[in-house]
Automatic annotation (TrEMBL):
Lineage, opening ranks: Bacteria, Bacillati, Cyanobacteriota, Cyanophyceae, Oscillatoriophycideae
Domain of life of the source: Bacteria
Alphabetized SUPFAM superfamilies for the sequence: TTHA1013/TTHA0281-like (SSF143100)
Entry protein name: Type II toxin-antitoxin system HicB family antitoxin
InterPro entries the record matches: TTHA1013/TTHA0281-like
Amino acid sequence: MDFYSVVLKKSASYWVALCLENGIVAQGDNPEQSMSKLQEAIESFFSFPGGTREPEKSPRC
């Protein structure tokens, strides 16, 4: 099981969940729904060919 850092924020009438390690974002009507959708999005991302658990390196200018 992998662990991620998540920021939850209320925005207008919905909640936003942002995963700090990979930048994946989800939203829902409440914190639980946004976290559930975020977990689903993370699992989907890593099941897709080309999805990686390694952080991307930024190009040097």
